[in-house]
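LAB NOTEBOOK - FOLDING QUEUE
OPERATOR: T.R.
BATCH SIZE: 2
PURPOSE: Compare the predicted structure-token outputs for two unrelated chains run back to back under identical settings.
PRIORITY: normal
REVIEWER: second-year student, initials M.K.

ITEM 1
FIELD SEQUENCE / FIELD STRUCTURE:
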Amino acid sequence: MNRRTFVKTTAMATAALAASESFAFASNKRKIGIQLYTVRGEIKNGIDSVIAKLASVGYEQVEMFGYNNGQYFGKSMKEMAALLKQYNLTSPSAHIGLNEFLYQGNDDAWKKAIEDAHIIGNNYMVIPWIEPAHRKSLDDYKKIVARVNRAAELTTASGLKFAYHNHAFEFEKFGDTSGYDLLLNETDKNMVKMELDLYWVYNAGKDPFELFKQHPGRFVMWHVKDMDKNDKNKQTEVGNGSIDFKAIFKKAKQSGLEYFFVEQENYDVSPYDSIEKSIRYVKANLV
């Protein structure tokens, strides 16, 4: 091969590699999700208008909350699934807070929720919260761990997946361990995944990078929620606060990330203005 042929062949190979990498990046581009709780106050005006707004702003996925007796905000699962489809949205995950399952041992309540999750098209079912009365000691958490394992068994057997969503309280220490330690170490890591709320991790003074390192592949979903630069108990739009999401997203593979959802619980602007500011930053910097 002469020099001219070598240079031409090398240039073509480089261009092909760049094109293939560009295609791989585009094909792996993550969809932007939002936790519906972010706009909970707007739902009083009707869930239809809320879903329409989320789609118009550019969100592609919705994480549900508010499951109640087989409905979301007065709509059946089929009606809710149809509404999402109308606006080309999907719901890969849902927060399912069922006290009768978690604290009273009623497996049938979770089995019903599983049936409904299939109808709406969820991939993950998430336990989002532990009531204060049920997290006062390590013994309390051990009871929760047993129920979390049971939820995961039932969910996995149905063909869906299961995750647990944290706040800050799980990181509180009981001696040399915490509730979150138990949830990570005493549940089945193959069936019990974690939805890491990044704001609450930082609020508790913890490091998500250490969690990724210690439990690679376990944190399949994130809540992307920013922290005010001056007040750790106040939230702000993504990119407007103190959390370095660019660095965190670089560890997505180590985390095991499959889905992420923008979330915000308190605002200085209107909720709709807030979610527009957040998605502009996410589109420009994180996906």
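ITEM 2
FIELD SEQUENCE / FIELD STRUCTURE:
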Amino acid sequence: MIEPETANLENNNENSAVSRRRKLLPWWIKFFIWIFLIFGVAVLAGILFLILGWDFQLSLYGLQTTTPGSVIGIFILILFAFKAFISYSLWTEKGYAVRLAIVDAILGCVICFLVMGIIPFIAEGDGLRLQFRLELLLLIPYWIKLDKIKNQWKEINGN
């Protein structure tokens, strides 16, 4: 049987280990975690609007649509839901969170590069429209920071 003092000590160790993981994240990542948690709730509203047949605008990484039931619209909703799940995982300090966030950063970079470099050449329209995706200015540092903290994240015992 565990004595009450020992149980409290174990709980304090768990809580301090958990809080140390979150301290590895810089303020700007925490800021975007909260933004994408809010977008996760918006995805639920978006799915409801989709079921009701209401159109609304969606945009992420240069992909955009006003028809959420289209392939692009559903893909964007899935991306937002994925980002919300990753944000929740980072905020609750899950062991897999940083690895999954790195996958998210790589996926975001790949989509941005596709939108910048391939889609302009195959899209129909009034001519070639090349553009630089500003998201890359955040995705690349995000990826680098996550790569730097992944070993520390793994070493800290937590969820």
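REVIEWER COMMENT (ITEM 2): The chain has a mean pLDDT of 84.
FOLLOW-UP: none requested
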